[in-house]
Amino acid sequence: MNNARARQVLSAVERSGIEWRKSSKIPNSNGQCVGVGPLADGSGRVAVRHSHHPDGSVFVYTQDEWASFLTGIEPGEFDFS
Fold first, then answer.
1. Which of 21, 34, 63, 79 has a Cα-to-Cα distance from 27 of 20 to 30 A?
2. Closest CA to 59 of 36, 75, 32, 26
3. Distance from C-alpha of 57 to C-alpha of 66, rounded to nearest angstrom
4. How far apart are the first and last CA of the chain?
5. Residues in domain DUF397 (predicted)?
6. What pLDDT score does 29 carry?
7. According to the model, what pLDDT value does residue 72 have?
8. Domain residues of the chain, as ranges?
9. How far, in Å, CA of 2 to CA of 32, rounded?
10. Contacting residues for 22 by C-beta, under 8 A, at least 6 apart
């Protein structure tokens, strides 16, 4: 894993511009999920964080990285079973 990708520090201004969303499709998650949201800078980058630690670490992905992830979710590419 690229260490620069592993943890990125966003400024308070960058964080405040993110409209965080949580999945509504995970039943019985007891609130254990991630929040995702696009950065407001128009770059298409997407931030990901743990929903219980909103001020904690944030992973930031490029538009292409996020699109690749979403493409793999539906066919089960990331299923571990």
1. 63
2. 36
3. 18
4. 23
5. 19-73
6. 60
7. 87
8. 3-21+33-73
9. 26
10. 33, 34, 35, 36, 51
